[in-house]
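Notes, Module 5: Reading structure tokens.

Key idea: the token line is not a picture. It is a compressed description, and you learn to read it the same way you learned to read a sequence, by spotting repeated patterns. We will look at two proteins. The first is printed below with its tokens.
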Amino acid sequence: MSSIYQINKGINRPIVFKGLKAQYIAYLAIGLVLLLIAFAVLYILGASLLVILPVIGGSGAALFFFTIRLSHRFGEHGLSKWLAKRNLPDYLKFRSRRLFIKLKH
């Protein structure tokens, strides 16, 4: 049987599923599992379903929105590059290649 959902994957291309690219699919899956565990823990602790459902539903909606936003903003490797660039100390940041071009002469 064929699947309802299509996963588009070409040669040397990232996995794309419903607009999510590459590692963002995993981020969404991990977030959903954590929400499921949070729901179970709150239910076992005896919290009211009228409190639990809006909290978990709102968190799930925020998770979907945030993950899709990150996927569209950064793409496949952009988030890793952005986080790496943010962690560079100020004295290692170079705004241009002029310094390296002058080293040749």
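Here is the second protein, with the sequence above and the tokens below, as before.
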Amino acid sequence: MLAGQARAAALHWVRHHAGPGFRGAFLTGSAADRSLDEVQPAWSDVDVTVLLAGPVAPPKPGKIRHRGALLDVTYLPVSALADPEKVAATHYLAPSFAGPDAILSDPTGLLGGLRAHIAPTFRSPAAVRKRVADVLAAVRTRLAARDEAAPWPQQVLAWLFPASLVAVAVLVAAGERPTVRTRYRRARAVLGEESGLYARMLGLLGCADVDAEVVVGHLDRLAVVFDEAAAVGPTRFPFASDISAQARPVAIDGSRALVAAGDHREAVFWIVATFARCERILGDRPDAPDFSAALAELVGVRGPGDLRARTAATLAFLPELEEATAAIGGF
């Protein structure tokens, strides 16, 4: 499937299934930047944000297979885009209004207005600085909110995702769109193969020296656990649709593609994230040796004490990262 066909499928879904109160739709993620004649990889979904009237959006429907394309649909209340300056300073929203290609449907003209406001200064040093500050604030806030009374998989996720935003900060500083699964590989491309800063980032994640065979072994075990969790069916876990049969190409095949490309260290983030999500669905099993082994051997985490230490190290790293992003972004 070509990216243009995937985009057409997304637009068709929006037109026929967005529901009452529809106010617009736009793309986020890597699909927003692909040319129409570029191949849409089987392990890459199409992230679609649907704007709805009302103060609160419905729950995220998640992964949907539609006309051959794998869509990942998120609802957003239209009020979230009411302040153009706030949108321009939000690192995960602003890129969708840096150009014309990410807007799928704009019946009210709101999205076009945001584009007119954001696009002309999107790459200016002042605008980049605000978006980088938004990322760094998210790292601090979300790491500080970790709850050691939460189930262990949830504790892992509450550390892993904000800690990985150090890679996103690099992408934002370079004027690039933040992504999820490939954030480390893309940050390496910005910083360079021999970057000491990038080595530090992998060290904070805990996978700087992990061997490719070790990664493959844990990915093989994850594939089995993934299928067990996917068979449970719908749950109230917010990202449960990422652990489903239709999402398997993204979670498993996408990770295999990274490893096959020589990016086994860069695959670790998504492997651990997927493992933790599976364990949340399966119920925080005390007899989950595969998850425990993956944490220990991929990122060197064996208990809450390791998460505390890793959190402290990440926070201590932020001033250095802030200097580096300022140099990258020219602010």
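Summary for the second protein:
- The longest helix spans residues 304-329.
- The beta strands are 22-28, 46-52, 62-66, 69-77, 103-105.
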